[in-house]
Design goal:
The chain is mostly helical. It has 9 helices and 4 strands. Helices cover 70% and strands 3% of the residues.
Length: 244
């Protein structure tokens, strides 16, 4: 039971990391400038890719030799997943994380035909290439190693989710002026004026989604605490270095 959980979680994380890399490459090509931070979480992974890939790998294995079925089902499911992920996250955090309104054949700016086609192609790649390789890779390690890796990775991932949710829930974006553009790319100047970028956790999130402004007193107190803690850490580190 524990091994099965760790096995699937390691696969989920690997797919999420691959999705993160794909997203960076895609956005870099589209914006024609290097992009290094994407996604809601602090770590280099995008759970939406992990969830979508695991679904395809688990349910579409029987269609391995039917490329048309893989393409159609992959397109439908991943488009549905992206739409409702966008909807839920916007309801939770009052923040539009991506917007495809400038693309042809889009639905409320949450999904578009181009991405849906890419999802279908991605579904074929997952079933025909990635899943066979990743399952072989994970099975290559002893069960004890996978269990330890899975537990450690899950704890880190869980902490990441908690911290990221706390930060984002205490941030506020006014995206009413940006209903038809991607808020992650167009409000960078507003972010820079609102929050200082030298805060370790917050800066990572803001670079990924530069469309936020400071919100309530609780979050401001949190930022002040983080700044003072960070400052004290470097002062102690410098004193220790001088003492040595």
């Amino acid at each position: 039971m524990l091994y099965n959980f760790c096995y699937w979680f390691v696969l989920f994380l690997l797919y999420s990391i691959i999705g993160y890399i794909v997203e960076i490459i895609n956005v870099t090509i589209m914006t024609r400038k290097p992009v290094w931070n994407r996604g809601f979480l602090i770590g280099p992974y995008l759970p939406i890719y992990g969830v979508g890939s695991l679904f395809l790998a688990y349910f579409l294995g029987k269609y391995e030799n039917d490329l048309v079925a893989l393409f159609v089902i992959g397109t439908f499911f991943c488009t549905l997943l992206e739409y409702f992920t966008s909807l839920v996250m916007e309801k939770l955090f009052k923040l539009r994380w991506w917007d495809y309104s400038e693309y042809k054949f889009n639905l409320n700016g949450r999904v578009c035909l181009l991405n849906s086609v890419l999802f279908g192609i991605g579904g074929i790649i997952v079933i025909k290439v990635l899943n066979p390789f990743l399952t072989w890779f994970v099975h290559f390690f002893p069960k004890e190693v996978i269990i330890h890796m899975g537990i450690i990775a899950f704890v880190i991932f869980l902490i990441d989710c908690i911290v990221s949710c706390y930060i984002t829930n205490n941030l506020k974006i006014n995206f009413s002026r940006y209903l038809h553009i991607d808020a992650t790319a167009r409000i960078k100047k507003e972010v820079g004026q609102a929050l200082k970028k030298n805060i370790l956790l917050t800066s990572r999130l803001l670079k990924a989604f530069p469309g936020v402004s400071s919100a309530n007193k609780k979050f401001k107190d949190f930022l002040n605490f983080f700044q003072s803690t960070e400052k004290e850490f470097f002062i102690l580190k410098r004193k220790k270095k001088n003492h040595d």
